[in-house]
Batch of 2 targets.
Target 1
Amino acid sequence: MAVKRVLQYGEKSLREPSKEVHKVSRKIHELVQDLLDTMYAKNGVGMAAPQIGVNYRVFVVDVSKNDEPLNPLVFINPKIIKKSGAVIAQEGCISFPQAYTDVKRYANVTVKALDINGRAFVMEAKDGELLSRAIQHENDHLDGILFIDHCVNRFETDEVLAKHNLPPINPEMLADDSELDKELNK
Ligand code: ZN
């Protein structure tokens, strides 16, 4: 369909919770195509609907490597139904150009969602790999949660944000990562 403008950190829709999709209609198909077109245009591994200003519970992910065929995955009304283990790794976001920081995530997640045909599926992403990280990152976008909310060190992250002329962390938005911390300390 079209490459859309990607909202940048500070814009309102990124902090707003998204609505459930009631019917996987033609409108939703168009939204998915816009997300894929925009994600590929920006060389991202994932893109959530709020990032193009549409607050519906839809995201796309493609973790294929450059020399592999494209492997677009579509998640509609996703729910993470199982999570375990924890890992720390550098993460970025297309809505935060060039800003990378260490972020805590679960190593393994199981996600339930609808596919592009409206059929339910369950997917497991394990071992702290890119797919697991991408699913958690994109799923968070649907609740107005951003990767910096899971940062390992708030002050280091603020330095990175300042370097890229982005607003600092709002301490009230930091996620409660006590469960994740427990997993990290195991
Ligand atoms: Zn993002």
Note: The chain has one domain: 12-184.
Target 2
Amino acid sequence: MSAPETSYRICLLPGDGIGPEITAEAVKVLDSLGAVEDVGFTFDEALLGGAAIDATGSPLPDETLAKAKAADAVLLAAIGGPKWDTTDPDQPRPEQGLLGIRKGLGLYANLRPVRIFAPLRDASSLKPEFLEGVDMLIVRELTGGLYFGARGRETGVAGAATGGGAGMRAFDTMEYHEYEIERIARSAFEAARGRRGLVHSVDKANVLESSRLWRAVVHRVHAAEFADVELVDQLVDNTAMQLIRNPAQFDVILTENMFGDILSDEASMLTGSLGMLASASLGDGTALYEPSHGSAPDIAGLGVANPLAMLLSVEMMLRYSFAMDAAADRLAGVISGVLDDGWRTRDIASPDTPADRIIGTIAMGDLVAERL
Ligand code: NAD
């Protein structure tokens, strides 16, 4: 057989805990897909997080960042674990690797799809009738806002604000530049074009100046470049309520860093299952894909981890980095089919799942790879 004409290089970051186990399933599935699609995937593995600390003393070795930058896409499993938990600020921490690689790759847009797989509807804390048609994408700005603005503490502040007495004062600043809002707005509108064509831009423009700039810039980008997409402004407190009241109304939610952090966790719980949530972080260069869950140290090495969030991250990689939409649809369809047929890993099994339908990490990966 001749070598495929198209070939992509993927930087693999298995990380810690269950990371290596679910990474192996991603490689298996990509190999299967590559054979069917006649596309070559090559893998370049690198160290991140606790594994990198153990081997090199640093959670993000230079070599890892270089490999990530040189790749067509980065697939990260998860990092962290009790072994590296420390309160000593001078000790390296696995999370520094994660923040460092996001910063090093200039990833400013975090995309988190939230969809309900019909057979898993009972895992949600909402009644099934509220989940009909839920399929949304949260587009969160990742490098600006409150988490990156000026911050500090002052001691011994006296005056009326402290009721006359001396006290401590702390502040964080929510700050946005026009260019930061423009580029994240484009990410959201472009994503909406490939979906139902609806964007809810979420802000707090009735109170915050940064939100008023946000709203003005989003509307300018919309009018100039994306008039075919429907745009709705919504205040963040209302969105928090609407996500529980009527989640099916949302297609794309566009929002700033902290609002997105909170809303995406709220929305993810609609699915009821951490093992099913994928994410993509995009910038101007190489994009990074990762499941939303952590390294699950409690089940590491037992062969029971759910690889589906990792495989759904692969689906996003196919779509956003390789423009392989048909292959991404096929992978999503196969995963739905496996669930429809009753196959479950332990974390998504219900009390009435027959014991012979509860399978481990490798068996779940095999099922998906074979069906592709
Ligand atoms: P976690 O997501 O690792 O685990 C929470 C619970 O969900 C555990 O019971 C775990 O067994 C289960 N779980 C998670 N993923 C699963 C999967 N794929 N299949 C089956 N069960 C799964 O969160 P945690 O316990 O709070 O954190 C554990 C470690 O992971 C910590 O060191 C934390 O810092 C790190 N973490 C890393 C990331 C990341 O790499 N992006 C994200 C969150 C937490």
Note: The longest strand covers residues 6-15.
